[in-house]
Structure formats: C-alpha cells, structure tokens
Design brief:
mainly alpha; Growth Hormone, Chain: A; 2 strands; globular
Length: 487
C-alpha cells in the first residue's frame, strides 16, 4: 500500500480485532488519500517540531564547548595543556553510549513526554553548572553527567518517530527532525558570538554566559515539552490526541506496511536474540562512520577557521552557514530517497560529497576553497545521519528490535564522537590532516558496507520473489511474510 491508496472500510468503531497470521487487523472507517494525508500532517505538527527543538538544544549543549573554548575557556581552564581538551570531549561519550538502551526501556514504561522532558531538564541543569566551573576537572565531570542525561534523547526520538510512520515516509520525517536541529544548531554559533559580548556582565566571562544562558533555555523548553510531546501510536487515543477512528487508521497503516503496530515488550532474552542479527551491527558501524565527521566539524571547525586567520568571533559566525546549507541539501536527498524508495544510492552520493570536502579542507592552499570544502563535508555527513537511520528502520521488523537497533546504532554514534575527539590531535592543529584522513577512511568504509548489504538484500529479495513466482511457500523475511528489504 502506498501513500495514495485508500484504506478499506470494515465495521465501525471497534477495538483491535482478530490476528491474521502474524499481523493484527484493525476495523477502521474509510479514509481517502486526502483525509489520510491530513491525519498524518496532524501527527507531523504535533510530533516533529517539539522533538526537533529539543534535539537542537541537545546538539548545541554538547558541542558549544568549541565556541566556549575559542571565547576564552581554553585559556581560563588551561585546556591547551597536554590532551586536556581531548579528555573533556571524550568523557561525554562513555555514559552517552552505555545508557541509551536502558533509557529506551524506561521510555516505553514511563511514556515519552515524562521521560524525555525529565532528561532534558536534567542536562539543562548540568549546562548551567558548566558555566560556573573553575577547574578543567570540574568541567570534565559535568561532561560525564551531560552524556548520561543526553543518552536517551536521540535514540528515544528515533524510536518514537519510526513507530508512527510507514517505511517510505520515515526518512523525510527523520530528516526534518534531525536537520532542522542541525540548522538551529548552526545558528547557535551566531548566538554564541552574541553571548560572548556579555563579557564582564555579573563579573563573569563571556564563555560562561554561553553555558548559562543556553542551559536556561534548555530547562524552559524541557518544561514546555512535558505538555507537548506525543506518545506512541497505541497510546494516542488514550491521551486524547486522536479519535478512535484516527488512532485505528494510524495503527492499520503501520500494520499493512510492516506488521509491527503492536508493541512487543523488550525483555533481556529478546535483547540478546536481537543482538545476534549481524545487520544491526552493520547499521551501527555505518552510523558511527557518519557521526564521526559530524562531531569533528562541530568540535573543530571553529578551531580550523581560527587557524585560517579569522578572529574567534568570526570563526564562530562562519561555522553556521555549512550547517544551514546541509539542512537544505539533506532534506532534498531525503525527499528523493522516500519518493523513489531507495536508501543505499542516497547514502553513497552523500559519502562521496563528504570525501571531496574533506580532501579540500586537508590539502587546498586557498582558505576560500578550504571553507567551501567544509560545506561539502558537513552536507555529506549530516545528510547521511537520517539516511542511515532510515536505512536500518526500513530493514527491520518489530518494536522491540527497533528499540534495540536504535539504541545500538546511536550508541555507536557515540563511538564516532570518541574517534573525532581523539584523532583531531592538538599537535596537528590547525590543519588536522591526520583527523581528516581518518574521517575520509570511514566514508570509504560506509561505501563498502552499503555495497555489500545491497548485494545481499537484493539476492534475498530475488530468492523470495522466485519462490512466490514458482507457486511455492513464501519464506518470511525478518519473520514477516510479504516483507522485502529496502535497497
């Protein structure tokens, strides 16, 4: 069933009904294409803006340390000594990676609004605390806590969004949610420049105001999110957001598309079982390989620009445009991916863009060309984040598996952050050629793994199609009859 197909009417206003094989059937009113589109727009406007706003704050709060560094924090806390800055960056990620799966398990039990708003308020408080640190070790401890509280937000958002939409609707939604966050995060570089001008206000340095003001904004938005964030589709009727027939329509769309509208509770036995699927590990390493350059540009682009001769304020301001352009190009790629129902070609093209950009930044002798290279690099890696999330989402079935997959995938994203924090070494500043080559190597890894998976997925789809064509019993893919891998 595609977006223009109509749902079939059966009886009126009943709860979930019979199970047909491995699928659940819902009795719903007839919704034509226009009504169905209107219903999903209603979901879009309630679900995506608040998640996008909250995640933009999360991105700002974990990466504004680079803005603070060039605004005077590096000198005040002596971060230039040894590998202190690298240590402070890396300490964000261990708790961030380890707490993602437990957070997704809590998310289902407590509800999306309660849990996501709570962790948002918590990391906002930590951000304010960073503004008052007097020693680099105190800053490092704050980064550990920041990673712990932010751990559950992104995987929770991805899990929640993928549970609401069909497979070939999801990349546009993930792209809209994530890339609007990136765009706002880019503007935050300009905000940081403005906050730097508060130097001396309240006898505080400008870099401290970056943390304090942005932390306060986080807390205010987290409080508002408690009243706005939408829960999972099976709870939408209970909270009064959807009528009975609207809720049934949403659930039937999911069931017809991939057969997992009904939540299967995540247990430790299921967790271990899902981890045996090598595809989840492949998707996770793909995500690691594209988040690594995203973190690298966030943490080090202002430093690279200062090395080109720009002032600290100009470097922060010039870090914004590449993210704004990436938001536009990646949404275009997401539209192509959903319209033509492909994932791997979109990922491959963006990888190539990233490689070209990285080589320009590494080897061009013209600063204008190097800055242009940062646009290509940021566009390629940022656009591939929703693309790779959608690639996994399209090729697995079951809500418990989605929960494990999203947590594992985004946990590996934290490993990408660790790599970015360590391979861009202080002694390689300001060109960071070693770090840029490691980043390019990971893009080549993405191209290789996506190529292998495409061949395997294509082979499996053809095998099952041949069984059906020959009149034999259809072998289920991912345990679901009728399911096909997305290439």
């Amino acid at each position: 069933m595609n977006d223009n197909e109509e749902f079939k009417a059966t009886t009126h206003h009943q709860e979930k009904v019979e199970s047909q094989g491995s699928r659940t059937s819902y009795d719903v009113e007839a919704y034509d294409a226009v009504e169905e589109k209107k219903l999903m727009r209603k979901v879009d406007w309630r679900l995506l803006p608040i998640l996008g706003a909250m995640y933009s704050i999360a991105l700002i709060d974990r990466t504004n340390i680079s803005n603070a560094r060039v605004a005077g924090m590096g000198a005040d806390l002596a971060l230039q000594v040894g590998d202190r800055y690298t240590i402070v960056l890396v300490l964000f990620f261990p708790t961030y990676a380890l707490l993602e799966l437990p957070s997704n398990m809590v998310l289902r039990k407590l509800g999306a609004a309660r849990w996501l708003s709570f962790i948002g308020l918590s990391w906002g408080a930590v951000m304010i605390g960073q503004g008052f640190t007097k020693h680099w070790i105190a800053l490092a401890i704050c980064r550990v806590l920041l990673g712990a509280f932010e751990a559950g937000f992104f995987p929770g958002c991805v899990y929640l969004i993928t549970c609401w939409y069909k497979r070939f609707e999801v990349q546009k939604r993930l792209g809209g949610f994530y890339l609007v966050s990136v765009g706002i995060g880019g503007i935050a570089n300009i905000l940081a420049y403005g906050l730097m001008q508060m130097e001396g206000v309240g006898n505080l340095r400008g870099w401290r105001w970056i943390f304090i003001i942005e932390g306060i904004l986080t807390c205010l938005l987290a409080i508002a999110s408690y009243f706005i964030i939408l829960d999972f589709p099976d709870k939408a009727e209970k909270i009064g957001f959807l009528t009975h027939s609207e809720a049934a329509c949403v659930l039937q769309r999911i069931e017809d598309d991939r057969g997992d509208s009904v939540s299967d509770p995540l247990t430790w036995a299921k967790f271990v079982h899902h981890l045996r699927d090598l595809k989840l590990w492949a998707f996770a390493t793909l995500f690691m390989s594209t988040t690594m350059p995203a973190y690298a540009f966030s943490y080090f682009l202002p430093v690279i620009l200062v090395g080109m001769g720009y002032s600290a304020g100009a470097a922060n301001a010039l870090s914004a445009p590449p993210n704004l352009v990436a938001m536009i190009t990646a949404l275009g790629f997401a539209w192509v991916g959903d319209k033509y129902r492909v994932r791997s070609p979109v990922i491959a093209v963006q990888c190539i863009l990233a490689i070209i950009g990285l080589m320009l930044v590494a080897y061009s002798t013209n600063n204008g060309v190097r800055y242009f290279g940062s646009f290509l690099g940021v566009c390629g890696c940022q656009g591939n984040i929703p693309a790779i999330l959608a690639y996994q989402s399209n090729n697995i079935v079951g809500q418990s598996k989605r929960s494990v997959g999203s947590a594992l995938q985004i946990g590996f994203g934290a490993i990408g952050g660790m790599i970015a924090s360590t391979v861009f070494r202080q002694r390689d500043a300001p060109r960071y050629v070693t770090g840029l080559w490691v980043t390019a190597g990971l893009q080549i890894y993405i191209l290789t793994i996506v190529g292998v998976m495409t061949v395997l997925f294509m082979k499996k789809n053809k095998q099952v199609d041949a069984q059906v064509a020959n009149g034999g019993p259809e072998e289920p893919i991912e345990g679901q009859v009728g399911f096909r891998y997305t290439l």
